[in-house]
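Box 3.1 A note on notation
Throughout this textbook, protein chains are presented in two layers. The first layer is the amino acid sequence; the second is a token string describing backbone geometry. Keep the layers aligned when reading.
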Amino acid sequence: MCWPSIGCSLLGHVFGITGPRLLGVPLQLGTEVIGMIGVANKQKGYGREDGRLLSTFANQSRVHLSENTVKSPIQEILRRLEARNRVQAAVRATKERRV
């Protein structure tokens, strides 16, 4: 079982696995496929329930990646603003001492 956007024939070729012993689902951020999560070699093969479970795992991974991708630039902006505020406070304190 493989989602069409994954290209299971390629995966099967790379890993030497064919048929129901390969399961792959896309890992997406928005509409962009950034990778895949795949499992292989389950003795009895994979079914729809396995696909749903792996899709759930992929969705949770997507949420984590999305949050970290968004947080990182925001955290950098906050760090810079905090540094700017410290400098401005120090300048103000120096000016007040002179007066």
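Strands lie at 22-29, 32-40. Residues 3-7 have pLDDT under 50 and may be disordered.
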